[in-house]
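USER:
I would value a second opinion on how I read folds in C-alpha cell form. Give me a protein, with the fold worked out from its sequence. Write it directly below this note and I will take it from there.

ASSISTANT:
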Amino acid sequence: MAFPKNFLWGGAMAANQCEGAFDADGRGLSSCDLLPAAKERFMLSKGELPLSKMDDSYYYPARYGIDFYYHYKEDIALLAEMGFKCLRISIAWTRIFPNGDDEQPNEKGLAFYEDIFKECRKYGIEPLVTMAHFDVPVHCIEKYGSWRDHRMIDFYKRYAQTIFTRYKGLVHYWITFNEINMLLHLPYVGGGIIFEDGENKDQVKYTAAHHQLIASAWATKIAHEIDPENKVGCMLAAGVTYPYTCHPKDVWKAMQEDDKNYFFIDVQVRGEYPGYAKKKLERLGIQLETTEEEKKILKENTVDYVSFSYYASRCASGTEENAEITDGNAFASLKNPYLEASQWGWQIDPLGLRITLNDLYDRYQKPLFIVENGLGAKDVLEDGKIHDEYRIAYLREHIQAMKAAVEEDGVDLIGYTSWGCIDLISASTGEMSKRYGYIYVDRDDAGNGSLKRIKKDSFDWYQKVIASNGEQL
C-alpha cells in the first residue's frame, strides 16, 4: 500500500470564500470583503486601485460566501460522510481581532472556531488551520499600510498567541500564511498592499514579505512553546516551471522563475535568505531592515513541514517572445503545447505534480502536504444531480501521480486536501460558477440561490478513495 494508515485524506476551504456573515458577531472588515465580482477585481488584487474606488453598487462575494458560518454543522457532517480524515480551514483574523491591532480578542469569534474544531473532532476529522488565508484587517491597511509596516509583526504575534492558547489540544496542524509567494504576484490579495503613487513597488513587496517571514517564524516559536505537539508548516503556490525548449536560456529562465517562489520557502525551511535572493535584492537596490533578534528568530524557528497548492505546471522562455500565454493560479505562463487546459485556461498536468513533489522533497527534505489541488469547472444540475466525471478524471490522475511519488520515489507526504471540497467562491475571479467541490451549493455568481447542498458523483467516488486509502481510484 502506497499511503500510510494515518494518511490525512480530506479537503480544503478558506474563511473568506465560504463563511459569509461578514458583519456578524463583532467581526471586522477584512481585505477580501472589498474585492468585487467585477472587472476592477484584478487591478485591486494587484494593489493598483485605492479602496475608495469601491462602493455599495458592487457585489462583494466574500461577504456572503456559501453561508458556512450558519451551515458548518451540516457541511462538516457531509464531509464526515465522505470519510474525511482532515479538513483544512482558515481562521478569519477579523473574527478574532476585528481591527487587527485590538488589545483584546472577540470572544464570539473565538467561540465560533472552537465549535468548528470540536465538530470536526466529533467525527474524527483532524483540523488543519491556516492563520492568514488572504486575510488582512482593513483597519490595518488604512492605518498602517498593512504588511509594509513592521508593527504588523506584533499584531500577528498577539493573534498567534491567542489562537494557539485557545485551541490547544483541538488543533495540531497549522499553516502561517496561505501561498506566501502570492504577495509578489497579487500584493493586495497576499498582503493587503495598495501602492501609493511613485512608490518603489519592489521595495514595498519585499519589505512586506520580509515582515511576513519574521511573523511566521515568531508564530512557529509561539506554537511550539504553547504545545510541543503542534506542527507548523509554510505554504506556497507551487507548480514546477518547464523550459519552453532545451535552449540553455530557456532552462535558465525556468530556473529563475522557480527561484522567485522558492525563496520564501528557503527562508522558512532553512532560516536565512539564500544567496541568490540576497543578490537579487542587491541588484534591485532593496534594503530590508532587520534586527539581530529577528535573524535569530528566523534561524531557530524553521517549519515542521512544507505544504503547497498545485493546479498546474508552468512554462518559461528566455528566447521566445511570441509564444502564446495561458492563465493559471495568478501566474501567467507560456502555453505548453503538450497539455490540455481547463475551462479557465489552467493547464492540466498530473505528471507535473509528481515532478513538483520530487523537486520540493529533494530541495527541503521535509515532510510535504498537498493542501490544494482540484479542477475548477462549470457544473450542470440535471434532474437534481451533477455528473462530474471530468472532475473525477482530473483528481484520479493527480492522485495516481501523488501515489507514484510516494511509492516509487520515496517522497514523505503527510496528506492530501483537495481544494474547495464544497463549492465556494473563487479567490481569483469571485465567481461561484467556477466550482471545485464534491458538494454542489445552489448559489450563482450574483449571490442568488437557495444554498441547498447537493452531492455530486465525485462525492461517492472520493468516499471510496478515502475508504480504500487511495487504492480504489
Q: What stands out?
A: The chain has a mean pLDDT of 95.
